Batch of 4 targets.
Target 1
Amino acid sequence: MLEKTYRPAEVEEKHYRLWEESGAFAADTRSNATPYTIMMPPPNVTGSLHMGHALTFTVQDVLVRYNRMRRRDALWQPGTDHAGIATQMVVERNLAKEGKTRHDFGRDAFIGKVWEWKAESGGTITRQLRRLGASPDWAKERFTMDDGLSRAVAKVFVELHRQGLIYKDKRLVNWDPKLHTAISDLEVEQKEIKGNLWHFRYPIDGEEGRFIVVATTRPETMLGDTGVAVHPEDERYKDLIGKHVRLPLVGRLIPIVGDEYADPATGSGAVKITPAHDFNDFEVGKRCNLEAINILDRDARLNDNVPEAYQGLDRYEARKKIIAELEALELLEKIEPHTHMVPHGDRSGVAIEPWLTDQWYVDAATLAKPAIEAVETGKTVFVPKQWENTYYEWMRNIQPWCISRQIWWGHQIPAWYGPDGTFFVEETEAAARAAAAKHYGSDVELTRDPDVLDTWFSSALWPFSTLGWPDETPELARYYPTDVLVTGFDIIFFWVARMMMMGLHFMKDVPFRTVYIHALVRDEKGQKMSKSKGNVIDPLEIIGEYGTDALRFTLSAMAAQGRDIKLAVNRVEGYRNFATKLWNAARYCQMNGCEPVAGYRPVGLTQTVNRWIVGELADAARKVAEAIDAYKFNEAANAAYQFTWGNFCDWYMEFTKPILAGSDEAAKAETRATTAWVLDQILHVLHPMMPYITEELWEQLSPARANRLISAEWPVYGAELVDAAARDEMNWVVRLITSVRSMRSEMNVPPAAQIELKLKDANAGSLARLDTHRDLILRMARLSSVEPLVGPTPKSAVQAVQDEATLVLPLEGIVDLDKERARLTKEIDKLSGEIKKIDAKLSNEQFVAKAPDEVIEEQRDRRDTAAQARDKLQKALEMLGA
RNA sequence: GGGCGAUUAGCUCAGCGGUAGAGCGUCUCGUUUACACCGAGAAUGUCGGGGGUUCGAUCCCCUCAUCGCCCA
């Protein structure tokens, strides 16, 4: 016998272990079934499960479990990402606790430390994924730094280099002065900073007493100024173009140039140009042949290219000093408060510096072209479709991708330098040595490029590198391209776009047919969850309190397309209650001997109630399947919830109690079998969203079954299961019972009182329904009898209309006449309002002329029904007297 | 500045051309042996404002307001 309530903690671990051990998650490369493939976005190896993970992996697991049950050969490819900077930071932080830095160890030893850390702590996220019930093919788990994946990375790098799509260049990069590495544009976050706009006077050379005013938010960069730009058409400065300015504090003569970058409308209209430390200035410098003087070192301290007094100063100390000194020289015109956007490193949190360095770049614009076309032609489709615009916007304006990082943890760039700086890009050191020997005519000492690749470089290869590429494995042939990629919009640029580029380039086909972009999970007020705000809801805590299934079902139910999820814990509680409800329904089945009957077929049933529930179930299961197919997880969850609670528990189980308690053995047997069968189907339909409780019930309700639910087949029913007549009949019963309950409640009839119901003017059909279902009507409406009304309507009665009939509750002595009059009046008013509205429509010639016939017909029907009901209630009201 | 999205019951959200829905919350009643993590019933909405298209608009179009996000 089942316990009284479901205790998730007691069964989740067991089922997970059994699933995994039995190979239920494994794809079958040799299967004849059509593959269904999802590449798991590899979480960072440093990660721990947050609500965003919980959503994305729940959605993926729902898809995978569902398609597995649909008998697709499902491959959910798992793995983790080495997360270069993030992981290196974690390990360095640990070393810092012992007062050490990575430099105390040296590169190789430090990398050894990182691997050690990974072996000890890198499994957290995958353990937590297991708690969430995720069912990827763990045997195929990969890590972006695996040998195989590293080989793929090297091959891609070398090939792209040979094709001219990877190149080395000296340009301004986003330099992170804390982490000492370049980062890509995407890793830069613009933060609004309240600062100042300092206006400086630069003396014009050769014109004593004349100044040009320039404004800057970054005074320290003035030491690297190599020009002042004005708009070529700006009348104020036209005469100055070609002249020079004597740069204060430095003494350098720098030219005044005409360039349209200077906006006459902002500030003074003149701008100082620091080509080595500003992206816009860099372009101006190129156009106007200005020198680029690098004045910063890797810590963003001033270097030897500035006057001695400033050398070694931090950028912010230098700023203070410069302002003070210019003020002393009376060259500070004014200071305006100014709020502006300052780029910050997303990992380090410090302001990044544009810095001139040698870096490796990917020619993203070239690779983007086929990737754009693939979406334009529908080879890859975004769901919801609007995200395609975001993708296009980014891809059509894509900039060269800086892929080198000055850190140690990651894929080291496969380039080796000879003594004269010539480099050899090869997959292995041996190949590089051979190439160098050929080039120099003898063996020479080679040094490998110390940089590593951007983490996203290896992630971009994930859809094929995990399947064995560059080897032509059976997996690669079978599972690429994948079916759907599930992810959040925040990494469309980081990852989706890059997989598209790499996939198309190396596999000549898109990496996935569909990209499902889900929402971001926020707190219940719509704030992004963050540790600093203290509004984080920890999925593991939720799981601990309400169970995994409750969390998964909540996330499914809230995953409506195109909207963020504001997660409120009471929603989870509500769906935990749903799990308990299901549990108790199963318990009821068990107590009533409703056990699965081998060979049961839901056709040819004798009991209307059974034909009805079977049809409702078929409808609900179809809705769930269609919703999952359309990535409408909220609709899938709601359809399953509504059927289980609203149809099966609230009505069917109550309807059948008289049969199960009765003496018609054949009806009893049929009903038991049907009840068991429907519950069984519910378990199937809920399983993708609530895997644990359904598996547990599946096992407990019929321990003899050979297979587990995870491996069962998704139910698909023929149209013959839906019986419209049965549905109409049961709906009639439902309406009758609801009506009586409502009258009782409104008239304050004590629940325990068994009263009589009379049916007035009921036709033969209704009377037949009444006879069929008398037992359950008596029970559910708490009546002593239900009979056709003979003779006149009793004086003190409460009445309601149902189709052609009137329901009459004779409540002599009990009924409060005023209350009943008020109730009837309210009903009548409601109906009158409706009739009036419909009449207005029907008397509108345009409506009658232009609306479709069936709409007009429907309006007429509704009007007639309402009018009939109103007349009957009117009579009832008159009978009560004024 | 450019783009996207949102605004529906007290709260969180579905719906998106023809009877406004759910969950939670609220109120009333209820120990009917599956379930009080429950059951029955009830109340609650000029579907952000203003225009337009249409026989008909919560739904389509325009505009304004407010809020949020992305990109400069």
Target 2
Amino acid sequence: MEKHMLALQLSHILGEPYSREWVYEQLELPKKESFGDLAFPCFPLAKEFKKNPKLIADELAEKLKHPHITKAESAGGYVNVFLDQSFFTEETLKEVLANDRDYGSHNFGAEKTVVLDMSSPNIAKPFSMGHLRSTIIGNAISNLAEKCGFETVKVNYIGDYGTQFGKLVAAYHRWGDDDAIQADPLTELTRIYVKFHEEAKTDPTLIDEGRTCFKKLEDADPEVLELWRWFKDVSLQEFDRIYDLLGVTFDLTRGEAYYNDKMEGVIKRIAGAGLLEESDGAQVVRLDEQELPPCLIRKSNGTTTYATRDLAAAIDRYESFHFAESLYLVGHEQTLHFQQVKYVLDKMDLPWANDMHHVPFGMILKDGKKMSTRAGKTVLLEQVLQEAIDRARENIADKNPDLKNQEQVARQVGVGSVIFHDLKHDRTHDVEFSLDDMLSFEGNTGPYVQYTHVRTKSLLKKAGYEKEDAEVKLVDEKAWPLIKLVRAFPKVVKESYEQYDPSRIAKYLLDVSRSFNHYYAHNQILDSDQEAGRLTLIYSVNLILQNGLEILGIEAPDQM
RNA sequence: GUCCCAGUAGCUCAGCUGGAUAGAGCAACAGCCUUCUAAGCUGUGGGUCGGGAGUUCGAAUCUCUCCUGGGACGCCA
């Protein structure tokens, strides 16, 4: 609101050709506290006025008068504006108290549904760090969507189909060991899957054998079907353990195989729309106008592809949920695939195809290279989580040995550090895997934010703070940077959702934490002359940290 | 070969869709616990924003080009 206010004032002074909107776009947040709270650069005006920007700034600063602006000064071609701190402090604290737990929420998503395709691990393969990104980012975006008023449907689209399972079955026929699979399913299944690919290097007939086995699966051969079910069951059990640890739930867990009997119908629809063409014995949809390679619908041996299944799934999702947005939390490397799927639906005259968005993310690299199951080069998420929890436990024993619920807090902090580490990075960038980095509890980390939350909680508890007798008046120059951050929260939530970018929340929480800790270290809060007002500020910070961590899917313990 | 993405401090990353002296954290070094949890705070050192050209009042940010790394490019998903 202060930005609109200033834009209006400046536009008024400048006159007709300079609209409020234009001025609003020009306004910036100064980089330094000493430059005030808002700044208007005068360089664009210099040319038109044929005047030195400094002179323009001088004049504007002189003319700018408003009850809620305490000072306007000209510096380096800018008009630096200082806001009335006590007025805006009071406004901010009132706003927080009025909304309380809903502070930062919006309702522009009301009556609309967002479907998220997330996590989507492949059965018979270990849950890797790569799946973590999809799970964690998807979960956070889902939480953001709910903050904005949307209904969400989280779908775990399990990879339980395709030639890879033919290969797995073929591998099982050769080297399968039932006892070993019972004992440690994913490890054993991965072992024979890796072995299959190694052997296939010298014996290419194995690949055909795999394809044949998949064909049998698609034709519902009882023996193959039985194996497939078994692999699937044991895998899902393993995945559930991890979802429990992460605290992530789904509204729908559905495998690709679910769409098996819907394939022919979809293919008929595509053909009916006159899109299907024969090519090298396979059936494809050409996407020449989009300058994309054709989308493969049916392979030459008659089996379907994952594109076909994604098409069937997309149609099914629309018919089930009539989504406003359908998001796919899937790695960067599948960008082309989702473009193809979208265009095929578009060509089928399904207008909602435009509401589908691939939300890509970068890969987790090991020594600068992609980690691949086939090469047996993956880092297992569960081991990482356990290691994180162990380190958190050691920390507690060292720093707060009398803490109650140590095991629970160790879990919250350990898991929180892993989740936060993932979410603080720009979604689309690749990240180099580093255990030490991920399990660090100092600096820009999840535990740092959690610890800050604990501090606010502890202050409120000690003071016996009650929201009912909150004081919204606070004159405290030192608190101003923190107040400004509190003010920004709703906007950060909105932008974070619109950009599908949880890292904005993570970075914001670090800013809030840093600002709070600085304030905390330099100002007495309890038993100070403005204790009541300061506590309301602490309450606001507490609310934001708790809310923000919740959005990221991280728990906030009261003590640690 | 074609297309896409990235390159910022020793390391990991920010940099708000073109603006003021490019910022955090880690690591290193030096301080701060008889006061609200030291998982914290304060300070120091550390940069040719991959190279080059262009656009303009102004470029880490936009355009072009080159270098480097990564990814994708119908019968894997």
Target 3
Amino acid sequence: MDLASLPGFRDFFPEEAARRDYIFRVWRETARRYAFSAYDGPPLELTDLYRRKSGDEIVGQLYCFEDKGGRDIALRPEMTPTLARMVASKGQSLPKPIKWFSIPQVFRYERQQRGRLREHFQFNCDILGEEGVAADAELVALVVDCLRAFGLGEADFRVRVSDRQLLSALITAVGVEGDALLKVVFASVDKLSREPPEKVKAKLVEGGLQEAQADRVLSLFQRKKLSDITAEFDSSKAVCDRVMALQRFFGILDAKGLQGYVEFDLSIVRGLAYYTGIVFEAFDCKGELRAICGGGRYDQLVKTIGGVDMPALGFGMGDVVLAELLTERKLWPEKLAQPLDVFLVLVDEKLRPQMLSLAHQLRGEGLGVDYAFGEMAVGKQFKVASQKEARAAVILGPEEWKRGMIKFKNLATRDEKELSVSDIGIEFKMLLPGWRTYASTLKQ
RNA sequence: GUGGCCGUAGCUCAGCUGGUAGAGCUCCAGAUUGUGGUUCUGGCUGUCGCGGGUUCGAAUCCCGUCGGUCACCCCA
């Protein structure tokens, strides 16, 4: 008990590790389908990288300390600043658009609760060097397809999309001016999904808005359709421009046939200060869990961090909420562990050297092979073999061995067959349908 | 940082209004010394989270503390 793991940190026993690896596999496969390249960065960064660039929200929850060289450093709470730094360090030399992904473990020092630990793995996909909404739509499509790859459908999740520029323009159009008030509105509006309108209004007034302004701001969130907005605010060029951009954005998703997964929702704001345009979050439809993922456009961040002017956007999807959702919807694949191909059953200890030689030979050919380390009753060996869900057992018995034969048993069908030792590799190829060549194993 | 609930075997938990601990599962062994997921039998594991208090006596009541959990704050 004294050496228990730290609060908010997880141990991954084989079962959990297998689930995590499954999630990673789907993530990587999705990134590959969308032609994103993998990159990685250090888990520790100078605290300043986050202090100055990400907004105050994140800084209070950093896992930070001084290292032995007196540097003020932090475990990364997110990947985006690292990515911005990496890309900026190459100047403008990388071919655009840059489409990169990573699966970093990120850390936040805060009290844990459901769906939120002090550490999690986060699938990050970012597009840099492209300012058009085609990139935003592509990224949202990637999110949708990723979740679909886990078996989640239209009944399970929705990506809600908003636009900070549109929201700013609207707020200005209803007469609220100034960055400070804008911030108040953003912060209050973020609560709309969780708190009653009166409470949000109270917050707005508390933040310095007049009652009438607060009402007008809140009324903005009644409308669900972009066309309603254009109808009412056609005198504001800023509003109309952004509505048109959003219409192009949704048009692209329509063309991909994904309209059923996305919806316009002005109340999506996102906490991080660096977002500058379209922002989005994915939620489970039942509303039981917190956001599955979130992201958006951050056109200024690369410049702020690395001095290189480059439009950019990205999202992060954590493994914790996703795993909860998969459990809830019973969407885990049945077999997650690496299957064992063969268990070698030793009938007589005198044949152990021959068994070891055979095990080594089969492993050399790429098969997963296991056997008992010490003397064990034959019945027990079979028990172990089936416990490990081996596909087949090979029985080395003195009688067959004298004739150069072994017994091969398909543990699923219980069929048994005698094979010659020399042909064993070829026989496995035919008898084990899932048999992989050594080379293909390495490529996976 | 604040609050609610919880803390008994590796796991899930029982233990009534105080009389110094139990079940199921898992694990190990055997029935079954050349054939497995069933069944049966036997076995191991606990300073009852920790510290203090009340009491003749505390797993049980009280206080504190640590841990877990959920929510708030905030948000990847």
Target 4
Amino acid sequence: MTPEEAELVDRIGLFMETVGAPRTIGRIYGWLMVCDPPEQSLTELATALRVSKASISTMIRPMQEGELVERLPSASREHYYRVVPGGFTQLLQVQLTRMHAGAEAAEFGLSVLGEQRTQQRERLADLRDFCRFAATEIGDDLMRRWADYRANNKE
Amino acid sequence: MTPEEAELVDRIGLFMETVGAPRTIGRIYGWLMVCDPPEQSLTELATALRVSKASISTMIRPMQEGELVERLPSASREHYYRVVPGGFTQLLQVQLTRMHAGAEAAEFGLSVLGEQRTQQRERLADLRDFCRFAATEIGDDLMRRWADYRANNKE
DNA sequence: ATCGTCGTTTAGAAGATTCTGAACGAACTG
DNA sequence: CAGTTCGTTCAGAATCTTCTAAACGACGAT
């Protein structure tokens, strides 16, 4: 890994950290984005990133579940991974999905709040609607809008 | 605070935690959503939530900066706070703003990556575009779409 | 002026997260 | 079969975050 690649890897690590993921996940992802060849075994990743195999092993699982990377079918014993193209959209999707919890909390609030507290009820209803809006409206619509945007910005 | 209100407060605390904020911020926000009267002094908040004044003092600052709550002008020495209506949209706005860092990291990657690595360049460009899309397109558009959605769901 | 009350700041405790090395079982190699 | 290499798991270390109590300065009341 060149020093420039190392800097990229760390930058993506920091980025992932700001959106709530462990830094190592970002570093793995960053490296898989630029490495050559694009598929890497778990041991190779550990060596390249100077991180223990244990960390890679633990971190790569949520990455698979989140569909950021995929494991390649392989006859050998090694586990080879590569980025799934466009998988970074999951970063947002996951965040938006979490808004459901907000909607549920607000809904609960409405169910236990006295009828006469109209001002408070209005605020809770507003919060609930927004969380639903974020989780469903934006979420469902996201991929389509992204595809459009992407098509328009293609050169 | 009734037990039901306490549960709501804790639920919103958990929700906030899932979106990356300290739990106490969520609990403060939850309480300010339903309390009566809707404006509360820092000391009152500490008492109601059974949290030290120090915590409230530390946590309420980022809440003000994030425009979740506002401090009321007041002649007295107490600092009175209340929720700013619709301020929860900031929860998403902040998240989306953070995507800028991803765009910058990808841009950096493109600037240091060899020209012949077309596959990698494509992936980075894609990541950059998506981060920009999330930060600007969605971000700018969010309020308008929310206003529409809100208007349509008003009864 | 003294006292009580306000919010802030700071130092340290408590707790959660993240990382590593070592031990392990499974699978291939000679 | 013994030896090597693979990924996983577990216990503990290191680190970061979050919380509190205590000390503090500012302000107002008596």
